[in-house]
Predict the 3D structure of the following.
Amino acid sequence: MNFDYNSTRSHLILAEYGRNVQNMVDYICTISDREERNRLAQVVIDMMGVLNPHLRDVSDFKHKLWDHLYIISDFKIDVDSPYPIPDRDQIRQKPETIAYPQRSIRYKHYGRTVEDMIKKAIEQPNPEHAERMALSIANFMKMAYLSWNKDSVSDDHIIQDLRELSKGALTLPSDTVLTKLDFKTAPPGSRTKTATNNQQNNNQKGAGSGGKKVMKKKVGGYSNNNNNNNYRSNNNNNYNNNRKKFQ
């Protein structure tokens, strides 16, 4: 018994149309009558539009379907297309190779951007502008250094690296004070109180007194507790008065 597996079949060129569409296109290529090929090609085009309705949102989707028909047939089908026949080389054009920079970076913790900025500063014709740019570059270098190494770094070290990267073209005075950067990290386990935590604390305080708040209902402008006390005092007075009468 012979089984038909996908691994033994021919390569499926456009998988979104399925194996049956490709088999029908291969059958059209074997027909000798040109009119019959044109009729069946139009049927296949209509079927391809039904299988992929999202192509109708594309401008000139009929042109795209005819291009797919030629691609499925591996450009072997000979029919009268209402659109120009696509070129195999243009459809299967290989992308151009991206040219990656091969220049090595002297100090990777500063990055290539610092080297480019130093080059621009050296090209400045105005010495005052070049000095300002050198100071800005040194501050940036200090920030980049501390982002990789959280330990403190001296300003002299940054000035020396700037002089080395610029090959002595950019020099800053030894008493130059760079921007002070302080990276503070929160200690582990510390969390800021949010509104949710405050609400939970309030609920816990309310639950500490029994879990329920006693609501005093006022009747006629007085609370129930006051009415009960007045009622008890009146009963006691009446009891004492009646007791005196029987003595």
User: Anything to note?
Assistant: The radius of gyration is 44 Å. Residues 214-223, 242-247 have pLDDT under 50 and may be disordered. The CA atoms of residues 187 and 193 lie 15 Å apart.
